[in-house]
Predict the structure of Tol-Pal system protein TolR.
Amino acid sequence: MSGTAIRRHRKRKLKAEINVVPYIDVMLVLLIIFMVTAPLLTLGIDVDLPNSNLKSMDTKTDPVVVQVDEKGNFFLAVKAGSNEAVSAETLKTKIRALVQQNGKDKLQVFVAGDGRANYQPIMDAMNILKDAGVQKVGLMSQPEKGAKR
């Protein structure tokens, strides 16, 4: 009897392999959970983003630049180098005249807001431009020094 007990013990060998089947099962369960919950996590607001065809800006004429300083004062530059301080009503009148002269689609208007300015005067300038008939307004920024292009 002792001989058969030794034989049984010898037939059982220890396996030095890792059983990965339970890990695969857990992975598949997690994959299914993430696939089901991912569409539910897309919360937010639907925004109609503008399309871009990556063309460079065609500037046949100098753009009109409305500058807003940190105190909320408006400045209008119709030609490069000409910068005059204007009130909100004067800005609206001059821009409306430029829109009628050049057309709504051809007039390029940019808003250059001081980085230290409150956001409200910049939004006021954009509202004045909208009321004057400008369809597209660009926001100007200056790249940081040392930034890669």
Remarks:
- Residues 37 and 45 are 19 Å apart (CA to CA).
- Residues 64-139 form a domain with the Nucleotidyltransferase; domain 5 fold (CATH 3.30.420.270).
- DSSP finds four helices and five strands in the chain.
